[in-house]
Design a protein that fits this description.
Elements lengths: L5 H12 L2 H5 L5 H26 L1
Length: 56
């Protein structure tokens, strides 16, 4: 039996919540909100890549 993976979505929202702009401000258009989500993802991935490069 496959367990629900709701925790994955909740964890992702928690990561986005660390970005103040996504946690506090509400954008006027969907396009700007999508752009800020993309920026948040890029920030998260670059930090993880930098941490992995330090270790490896």
């Amino acid at each position: 039996q496959l367990l629900p993976r709701r925790w994955v979505v909740e964890r992702t929202f928690a990561w986005f919540g660390r970005c103040r702009r996504l946690a506090k401000d509400f954008e006027a258009t969907v396009a700007t909100e999508a752009a800020w989500l993309l920026i948040a993802h890029m920030r998260l991935l670059t930090r993880r890549l930098a941490a992995a490069a330090k270790v490896g």
